[in-house]
Design a protein that fits this description.
Number of helices: 19
Radius of gyration: 35 Å
Shape: globular
Distance between the termini: 68 Å
Largest sheet: 6 strands, mixed
Helix content: 25-40%
């Protein structure tokens, strides 16, 4: 029965279709093989409609294919850049490093360890920074070896004069950006921008005619210890007097001190990073050199390994790092010179010449190039477990340790709520007490909670490593810290992060507050009003002004612990917390 009903239904449908005059007429027409023409040889309306629809579908498919191909090309370009270009760049740098030291290696003057490192780099077996250790030399032979390829060997004819200290106009296109470079101090004070500058090692000065000082932005260039200002009768320098010639652009820090550590070393190197970024991205010359009064960073104590590694990261793009303390230079006789094609130099305002957040991003890119470490530039890009954590940095030594840490943590918990993590840390380059000499742990509890079987899994580090600090603080988006060198790690914190600096009674400093705008860090500070710890230590009461203006008092206060007045501290924590919620979009933003 069901079959009959189905057949009847189909027959009824056919009858209804045939009743339509247009359909009936179409069914009665003879159909050709192509099905697209009428009996008169003209395309039928149905065929026209099908053709137009087919064409639209073809065009749409083509558009989709083109769009997909464009996306694929873009993704391929990005993948190529991230996967291959960094490797190519490292190989090129390694090759340059090998070429620079080839002469020294051939002469046999390098120690076996250094020679072996150079050979490895030439074979691309190790990272280029191992060969760049020669830039932070500790032997006179190594210092001289880097100068040897720069020996001036052109025909010496006394009739040919070597022009020197010719000012470079900032209006030149490649130097135009320096006109807009104001830095933290609001000007480019004490910056030199000159061509053909000649340095006389016997006097330790650049001879310069008084009339050529008009281009100096320093209001008192006559007081510059590196200049020998001659009012009249400046003796010309002949080419036979030029013993070394440094090609390309040279960056000279007239105030760099390689024996500084921690934050002070960072303050010296950051402006050089700014100049390095400018030289490698804006000026197209025959290479970039760094010249320091003394480039030797002592290998001991072990802490100096941090500075050596940091220097290697930040100045990866330098073709050479030269030291004026090399015997080949400092032992030169009077009236012999070292001349530089182009010279960019900074003076006493060394850390006031930071150009902007691009300097920090450039430094991070150099770290990535040398280590392969991925560093975030914005706090919103940090993964959630660390991003929604408030870190309280508490020292493991007695000096500036927070004595009432439990009270501070409880107050921060009340302000932040339960959804926010709170973690007490210290720099991984601070040794964990009673740990058999272990470095590499920001939280020592992670080490103490291990069993004897897993105590060295992963193994403890016997030496400090700046890479551990970089990896840690690049994931810190909110840090509460007592004033100290650890706050220099704000340079590695991503943009938009919050730093709350606590000053013990009597201490003041503007270094980190002034650095914050140029790292795009949201900065807050709190000055502890309670003088009880200082009074107990000194046996009398000193005002904050007295402590800060007296070196010995200030030094002693830095060695004391801190008790934070929680009630006074709370409003500052609340303001910093609200800013953190807005800038970093943490889980606290939805609580």
């Amino acid at each position: 029965g069901g079959m009959k009903k189905s057949g009847a239904k189909k027959q009824g449908d056919a009858e209804r279709v045939v009743r339509s005059p247009r359909t009936a007429d179409a069914l009665q027409r003879p159909r050709k093989r192509g099905g697209g023409e009428s009996s008169e040889g003209l395309p039928s309306p149905v065929a026209k409609h099908r053709t137009r629809r087919a064409m639209r579908e073809v065009h749409a498919a083509r558009r989709h294919i083109i769009a997909a191909a464009a996306v694929a090309v873009a993704l391929g370009a990005i993948a190529f850049r991230t996967a291959f270009v960094a490797g190519i760049e490292r190989r090129e740098i390694a090759a340059r490093a090998a070429l620079k030291l080839a002469a020294a290696l051939k002469s046999g003057k390098l120690p076996p360890d250094t020679a072996s490192a150079v050979q490895k780099v030439a074979g691309l077996q190790v990272a280029p920074q191992e060969a760049k250790a020669a830039a932070l030399n500790v032997t006179d032979e190594e210092l001289d070896a880097l100068w040897e390829p720069l020996t001036y060997s052109e025909p010496a004819r006394d009739s040919e004069l070597y022009p020197y200290f010719h000012p470079i106009s900032p209006s030149e296109r490649q130097y135009e950006r320096l006109r807009r470079w104001k830095g933290r101090s609001g000007s480019t004070r004490q910056m030199w921008l000159v061509r053909d500058a000649c340095f006389e090692p016997a006097t330790g000065k650049f001879p310069v005619q008084l009339g050529s000082l008009e281009h100096f932005s320093d209001p008192q260039p006559m007081r510059e210890p590196w200049l020998e200002v001659i009012e009249d009768g400046l003796k010309p320098v002949t080419r036979s007097q030029v013993k070394f010639r440094v090609p390309g652009i040279t960056l000279l820090s007239r105030n760099f001190s390689s024996d500084n550590t921690g934050a002070h070393f960072t303050f010296y190197t950051i402006p050089l990073v700014a100049l390095m970024r400018f030289a490698t991205t804006s000026v197209h010359t025959g290479g970039v050199s760094i010249v320091l009064q003394d480039s030797r960073i002592p290998p001991k104590p072990a802490r100096r390994r941090l500075e050596r590694r940091q220097f290697q990261h930040m100045f990866l793009d330098a073709d050479r790092v030269l030291s004026l303390s090399a015997p080949a230079v400092k032992n030169m006789t009077p009236n012999n010179y070292v001349c530089f094609d182009e010279l960019l130099s900074i003076g006493r305002d060394y850390y006031n010449l930071i150009s902007g957040p691009e300097d920090a991003e450039y430094a991070r890119s150099r770290v990535t190039a040398t280590t392969g470490m991925h560093l975030e530039h914005d706090c919103n890009a940090v993964d959630m477990p660390p991003r929604d954590t408030i870190y309280i940095l508490n020292r493991r030594v007695y000096a500036r340790r927070i004595l009432n840490l439990a009270e501070v943590v409880a107050m921060v918990r009340e302000v932040a709520g339960e959804r926010v993590n709170i973690k007490v840390i210290e720099s991984p380059n601070s040794i964990c007490p009673n740990s058999r000499g272990c470095y590499g742990f920001a939280d020592c509890d992670e080490l103490y909670n291990r069993s004897d079987a897993t105590w060295f899994d992963p193994p403890c580090k016997e030496l400090m490593d700046i890479d551990d600090d970089i990896a840690l603080f690049n994931n810190v988006t909110f840090m509460i810290s007592i004033h100290g060198a650890a706050n220099a790690n704000m340079f590695w914190m991503p943009r938009g992060s919050v730093l709350l600096e606590v000053f013990p009674y009597g201490l003041r400093d503007k270094s980190y507050s002034q650095l914050a705008p140029y790292t795009k860090t949201e900065y807050f500070s709190y000055r502890e009003p309670n003088a009880s710890i200082a009074d107990t230590h000194f046996g009398t009461h000193y005002t904050e002004d007295q402590i800060w203006s007296t070196y010995q008092l200030r030094f002693d206060v830095k060695l004391l612990p801190v008790t934070i007045s929680v009630d006074d501290f709370r409003p500052v924590v609340e303001r910093a917390f609200e800013t953190w919620r807005e800038t970093c979009k943490t889980v606290a933003s939805t609580s």
